[in-house]
């Protein structure tokens, strides 16, 4: 059994890496999604980091 590769989602406001997701090799662009940032205390845009 092989472990999945993971990538982090970083907050675009404060830069903290709050979430991790499984890497998808078929995805061409970096994922951008609105998620709650516990440091900013609001929903902000999070971008996939590699």
Could you please describe the fold and organization of this structure?
The relative contact order is 0.37. The chain has a four-stranded antiparallel β-sheet with strand order 2-1-4-3, with no helix packed on it. The two termini are 23 Å apart. It contains no helices and four strands. The chain has one domain: Ribosomal protein L33 (Rubrerythrin, domain 2), CATH 2.20.28. With 50 residues, the chain is mainly beta. Strand 3 and strand 4 (42-49) form a beta hairpin. The model has no long low-confidence stretch (mean pLDDT 94). GO terms for molecular function: structural constituent of ribosome. InterPro entries: Ribosomal_bL33, Ribosomal_bL33_sf, Ribosomal_zn-bd. Keywords: Ribonucleoprotein, Ribosomal protein.
In short, what is this structure?
InterPro entries: Ribosomal_bL33, Ribosomal_bL33_sf, Ribosomal_zn-bd. This protein is mainly β and 50 residues long.
Record the SSE blueprint:
Elements: E1 6-11, E2 17-22, E3 32-37, E4 42-49
Antiparallel strand pairs: 1-2, 1-4, 3-4
What structural class should be given to the helix and strand makeup?
A: mainly beta
Tell me what portion of residues adopts beta-strand conformation.
over 45%
Q: Which residue ranges are poorly predicted, with pLDDT under 50 across at least 5 consecutive positions?
A: none
Strand order of the largest sheet: 2-1-4-3
Name the helicity range: under 10%
| Strand element count | 4
- The total count of helices amounts to 0
- Tell me, briefly, the overall form: elongated
Can you tell me the CATH topology?
A: Rubrerythrin, domain 2
- Class, according to the CATH hierarchy? Mainly Beta
């Amino acid at each position: 059994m092989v472990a999945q590769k993971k990538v982090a989602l970083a907050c675009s406001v404060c830069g903290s890496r709050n979430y991790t997701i499984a890497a998808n090799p078929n995805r061409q662009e970096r994922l951008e999604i609105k998620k709650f940032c516990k440091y900013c205390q609001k929903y902000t845009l999070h971008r996939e980091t590699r």
